[in-house]
């Protein structure tokens, strides 16, 4: 199932790269928080999204990318590929925006499940790109009847996305 979701995400983003209308590509760096702060020292990642303008100031689209968490204290590195719906609202008369990505994060490490993905953002928009601060959250809750498992991996990120038109 993971491979099928991955293939679908990359196929969609590949077609978006070809069209290049509304396509954004960038990267982020962050500090792990929540359960991730116990096992990771920092995170690096790439962001990709394709947005459509719905109405003045409001864009909706799809987002994906990759976030790599670097392990600390004898913990292994791990990473996630989010597949999300993305929304962005640009305030009239000011170069600032708020955004939200919601979806599922696919784990690329064996033995670690994926989970619900959410990333609210606040940023500054320029003519060729956008600078943002965001809180990336991946949460998983499993109820096996006799055993419950719950964790949240989070990171406070700063990132920059280039507009490719």
Automatic annotation (TrEMBL):
Source taxon at top rank: Bacteria
UniProt keyword terms in alphabetical order: Signal
Span of the signal peptide: 1-19
The protein, known as: Outer membrane protein beta-barrel domain-containing protein
């Amino acid at each position: 199932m993971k491979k099928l979701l991955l293939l679908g995400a990359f196929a969609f983003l590949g077609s978006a790269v070809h069209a290049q209308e509304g396509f954004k590509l960038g990267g982020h760096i962050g500090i792990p928080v929540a359960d991730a702060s116990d096992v990771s020292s920092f995170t690096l990642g790439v962001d990709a999204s394709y947005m459509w303008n719905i109405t003045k100031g409001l864009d909706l689209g799809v987002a994906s990318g990759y976030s790599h968490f670097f392990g600390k204290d004898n913990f292994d590195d791990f990473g996630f590929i989010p597949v999300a719906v993305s929304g962005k609202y640009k305030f009239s008369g000011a170069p600032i925006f708020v955004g939200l990505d919601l979806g599922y994060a696919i784990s690329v490490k064996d033995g670690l499940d994926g989970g619900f993905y959410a990333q609210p953002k606040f940023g500054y928009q320029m003519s060729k790109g956008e600078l943002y601060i965001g809180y990336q959250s991946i949460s998983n809750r499993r109820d096996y009847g006799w055993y419950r498992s719950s964790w949240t991996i989070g990171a406070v990120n700063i990132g920059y996305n280039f507009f490719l038109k």
